Structure prediction request, 253 residues.
Amino acid sequence: MTKKPEKRGKRKSEPWRGATRALLLGCLAELYLLLMHTCWIYGSLDEVLAWYDYLKLSVWLGLGVAVLGGAAFCVFRKTPGWKRAVSGMVLELGAFVALTGWLVSRYYASPITLLSVAVPAAALMAILWYLYDRECAWALIVLGLDLAVLWICRKGVGSVYWNGRVLTGAVIFLVCLAVLAALTWKLSRSQGVLGRLRLLEENFDTLPIYAACGISAVTTVIALVSSVAAYYCMYGVAVLLFALAVYYAIRQL
Prediction:
């Protein structure tokens, strides 16, 4: 009788551990970007020259750390505990340092601004993935991405420089929504399993994913037609996103 509560507690603690790791990685990455923003863009001449040399070195340094973390993760992948978690974090941080160093040394300040927004968004999506049911997490992630796409469309549609790129990105987003809806239909026929990989629970609810994909597709098309309508769609999606997050959080208590 005493073993069942222990197993249940262990299962409940695993999502919180994953969410904690995602939060920690997001904070470390954001602090690194803040340091880079302070010293590389607004630093003194000596700091800028020092970071210029460091950025070139950081690409290879980050790759080396990522390789070591990947090797350790392969060794401890079947061993639950801190060793697997730490090796995974080392792999991800090394890859982030290498990617950031390459982007900033090549494109200067623009990637820092982009990554400063992308890192918290990715951390939030990872936290949702760990804490919520898979179909709920997918629905919230899709709506969150839709909110970002609506903002980009409102700012970029009609712009001489960004119009073509924004239209291309919106089309890619619509294609991804169609692919996700088709994948959801396929997973509903195979009890959440794709090949040998389980992506969703056995008896998952398809409605949240279908609804999120449909709402995102409709609002994206509207945003491409009118920037004024995109403004109101942003508020509507934001309210829906907040309401669903609260609803799913209460339901899973």
In short: The helical segments are 3-41, 45-76, 82-107, 110-131, 134-156, 163-189, 207-225, 227-251. The radius of gyration is 21 Å. Confidence is low (pLDDT under 50) at residues 1-11.
